[in-house]
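SUBJECT: protein chain
CONTENTS: sequence, structure tokens:
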Amino acid sequence: MLIGRLGLDTARIPHADRHGLLWLARGALTVRDGTLSFERVEMASSSDAMEPGRYTIPFQGVSMILLGPGSTVSHDALRLLARHGTALAAVGVDGVRMYTAPPLISGRSGLARIQARYWADQEVRLDTARRMYAWRLGEVFPHHSISALRGMEGARMRETYRLIAQQVGIEWRGRRYNRQRPAAADVPNQALNHASSAVEAAAAVAVAATATIPQLGFIHEEASQSFVLDIADLFRDSVLIPAAFRAAKQAARGAYADIERLARKETGATLSRTGTIPKMIARIKELFPDNPD
């Protein structure tokens, strides 16, 4: 008997043997001579390290291609990626936006099955939330309700905001956010809002890359991207808050009038420099250690 549908499973390189993510921007992703090709165009305003020219893409050796701004993709390229189980995500500069990611990793359901099993068991779900809080806050809390855990986190976060603001050198008056009037907040709070969107986009890429289920969160519950928010929060202290406060400090110096652009740029540079998306992927796998795939 053939293995898998139409016997094609054996034609694919297992994702465990691939090299993770490949970042492409400002060019055309097409098929030439039966293989994937990326033609990088020259742009005067671009600061990307990739030189203009035509590149053959080893798409069977990567799990996911992140296609950045200024890029196009052909129908043939989508067909080839789908055939070999390589995912494609359309993202913003440095991954600070996540626009779409077709579910092309159809052969990998192990993490999603474990996630669903953990989520469906109330006790295991709470234990998983406690582990995530422990990663962030450095200790395992003894509390056995999610509301108590959230209360402990809130107290810790108020101190974290204060300490990082002091380290960066900005004035901090507390976290305030009015959903109806986001621009009415002071500059540090606006920077936090925009940096949050950027880190959540990176988490969305990580969730898509691991084929886990965005809706099944362990700390967040109601949002359609609950698990994405869970993963983004793991990097709130180390990535999000420092980047936002650095942007706020630059804004105070008159570097830019547009705090959204400045916060997005600073957060994107931090995501790229620290390799945050691969770290998020590793955290997701660590969260579900008994993955059968």
